């Protein structure tokens, strides 16, 4: 009785109400079981209908009886005393509305930007540490006055040699699948043209054709993806790493017509194989499945 006075709740009625809830759930389950079973165990249609209606009405009466009992017990349970301490749970009603104060989304966005800033700062620090010039502009100005001027020299090289060094063109063949024309400017890859293995890659005068596109849509798609890969593998301080990374990515197309899409599992979609290759895992995807 002391518990009833201090808390304001009839614990015995509360226990009976829990039992009433269980009874109500059982009676409701019997109603659905009756509907699931339907009309059975009678030879004639009229007998099955009568038995089903009678059984269904009995179950509904049970539900009504249990519901009335639960309502009666809920009135006997009572309400908690207003003087009962709620501690920190009493502050739940003071929580702000998410639509008016989107604090969580703002913190999440700030966290993403902080990670990006830290990542790019690390890249910039690595590039700056590779620089060999450690002197300031003032120091360079003072030392430049003291150093003797270097005498101009003339470097005589054949023009063809200079052209070959500045603008080489490579022809890469991947099995019997495709051919790739790689145009380089010094040590950097400038552009690529992908064509089928049986397509001609030379002009009438015997030079590599760096302007004509492939006659097939699948290799035109691969050419577009190769251009995207060149933009992805950008590291001006280490061009050799860029060339190796791009060539490794390009080599994954040797199974262009054999690898299924890693998302949908199909070999063809809209008449095309999976033409996209992931930059890190080199997995194959259709152009629409990679989103």
Helix and strand composition category: mainly alpha
Strand order of the largest sheet: 1-2-3
Low-confidence stretches at least 5 residues in length (pLDDT < 50)?
1-6, 132-142
Main pleated sheet: 3 strands, antiparallel
Helix % is 40-55%
**What form results from the Cα inertia axes?**
elongated
Strand content: 5-15%
Count of separate DSSP helical elements: 8
Radius of gyration over alpha carbons? 39 Å
What's the number of extended β-strand segments? 5
How far the N terminus sits from the C terminus, by CA atoms, comes to: 66 Å
The run of helices and strands is HHHHHHEEEHHEE
Average pLDDT score: 79
What does this structure look like?
- The protein has eight helices and five strands.
- Among the domains are: 2-80; 167-285, no CATH class.
- Mean pLDDT is 79; it is low at 1-6 and 132-142.
- With 291 residues, the protein is mainly alpha-helical.
- α2 (11-37) runs antiparallel to α3.
What is the structure about, briefly put?
This protein is mostly helical and 291 residues long. It has eight helices and five strands, in the order H-H-H-H-H-H-E-E-E-H-H-E-E. Keywords: Nucleus, Transcription, Transcription regulation.
